[in-house]
Amino acid sequence: MPGGEARCSICGRTIEGDETVLLKMRYPKRKGFTEIKAYLKNEARFVCEKCFGERWTERD
Ligand SMILES: [Zn+2]
User: Fold this and answer.
1) Sign, Cα dihedral of 10, 45, 42, 1
2) 20 to 30 A Cα–Cα from 25, which one of 12, 34, 44, 60?
3) Structure pTM?
4) So which domain of life are we looking at (predicted)?
5) CA 11 / ligand 1 centre spacing (Å)
6) Max intra-chain CA distance, the chain
7) Which one-letter DSSP state was computed for residue 10?
8) 60 CA to centre of ligand 1 in angstroms
9) Cα angle vertex 13, ends 44, 17, to 5°?
10) What pLDDT was estimated at residue 56?
11) Which positions ≥6 away from 47 have C-beta within 8 Å?
12) Cβ contacts of residue 6 below 8 Å, gap of 6+?
């Protein structure tokens, strides 16, 4: 995630604020939940709404 920007791991598009995304990650084995935030920076991959498909994007 260079420059702190989140990008879709499929299409490479920058994830915009307030956008619905799928967060794909491996749950840390030994770390507690409080460390997940830091973990996300290194391990998380985002998939944008468009790539993820319609059935998971219900907003209301
Ligand atoms: Zn995408």
Assistant:
1) positive
2) 60
3) 0.60
4) Bacteria
5) 4
6) 36
7) T
8) 21
9) 70
10) 57
11) 8, 9, 10, 21, 22, 24
12) 14, 15, 21, 46
**Ligand 1 center to 1 CA (angstroms):** 15
Which residues are within 8 A (CB) of 52 and not within 5 positions of it... i.e. 6 or more apart? Answer: 21, 22
Do 39 and 25 contact (CB within 8 A), yes or no? yes
The rounded Å distance from CA 45 to ligand 1 centre is: 11
Report pLDDT digits (tens) over 16-54. 888 888 888 887 777 666 777 777 778 888 899 889 886
52 Cα–ligand 1 center, Å:
7
Cα–Cα distance, 4 to 49 (Å, whole number): 20
